[in-house]
Each structure stands twice: as structure tokens, then as C-alpha cells.
Amino acid sequence: MMENFKAISLTVIAFAVVGIVGYWAVVTVEPGDVSLYKQKLKAAETSNEELQKEVSELKSELALLKSREEADKPAPIEPAGVVPAEKPAPTQTSKYQSLINELQKLVDGNIFMKVGSRGTRVGTIQTFLNIYNKTSKKVDNDYGPGLKTDIMNFQKAVGVTADGETGSATYKKMIEWLKKQ
User: pTM (2 decimals)?
Assistant: First the structure.
């Protein structure tokens, strides 16, 4: 009888241990796609951190270059005996002033762009549309079908011919919109 009790006790304990180990394995082991997703997420986070560091370094370099450029500008020399004229009051500048200036260059240069156009001028339009649409699409300096659609939507919203091509009228509306921000 005692032998049977020991055998039954050991069997119950063995089943309990197997049950606990089995439960632990089911709860802690993840499917392969979840594990792969976590690996990709970790790689993306690492890449993002590296890019943030690079952006920070580039901003520092840009600030340094701008300060050097300002320091290298010679001070204006006033002729002897001439009273300098009063400087006009500074005009209010927009937080998007550099983008406004780039768009104004497109107006002044009578620049026309459409699908197939490439270059930093296209990037200026993409930057504007990211601000206007509150998006963060990649600025790849390529006027593709997606950009054409975004341009057409903007043109419809501001009341210019919605042909998806950009010219002075569209640039002026972009400048007007930015100045209101």
C-alpha cells in the first residue's frame, strides 16, 4: 500500500511539474512573427536614434557656419560727415520666412514645374505641402504623381486652376498661406 501511495504521489508531482513547465512555455514563448516584429522595431529605434544624433550634429554645424558667415560680413562704412538715415522698422517675419523666400524665388524666376521635374525647387514645394497638410512625407526632390495630387488639392482649396502643375499663381497662394500662419 505504501508503495502505491509513493508511486501515485510521484506521478502527481511529475504531472504538476510538467503542467507548470508547459504553462510557462505557452505564456513566455512568442510566435515567430511577433519576435521578428520586435527585432525590426528595435532596429528602427536604433536607426532613429542615430538619425536624431546626425540631425543634431548637422544643426550645430549649420549654426556654426551661419555665425561664421555673419562674422565675416564687413560692417557698412558711412562716409564722413554723412548722417546715416534711420533704418525702417523691422517687418514682421514669419516662422516660415526661409520657405517664403524660396517660394518668392520661384515666383521671381517664373519657374514652372510638373510631373517629371526634379531638384531642390521641387523639394521646396514638398516642404510647403508637408506644412500645409501637416504631414511628414519624404522630401525627395521628385515631382511624382503623389505630389501632383497634393498640388491639385491645394489648388482647389485656394481657388486657382487645379491642374497639378505649379507656376507663379500657385507659389503666390503658398506664400499668402504661409504668411497667415
Answer: 0.50
- pLDDT for 167: 94
- Name the grid cell of 143: 515631382
- Range ranked top by mean pLDDT from 32-46, 68-82, 166-180: 166-180
pLDDT of residue 80: 60
Question: Which residues, in sequence order, are CB contacts of 59 under 8 Å at separation 6+?
Answer: none
d(CA 179, CA 99): 10
* Number of domain units in the chain: 2
User: Is residue 102 within 8 Å of 124, Cβ to Cβ?
Assistant: yes
Provide the CATH number for the domain around residue 138: 1.10.101.10
For residue 5, give Cα distances in angstroms to 15, 18, 21, 103.
15, 20, 24, 90
pLDDT at 107: 95
Q: Which amino acid is at 71?
A: A
Residue 6 lies in a domain: no
Spatial distance between the Cα atoms of 106 and 128, rounded to a whole number of angstroms: 13
Residue 63 domain boundaries: 31-71
* DSSP secondary structure code for residue 73 in this structure: S
111 with 157, same domain? Answer: yes
DSSP class of 102 = H
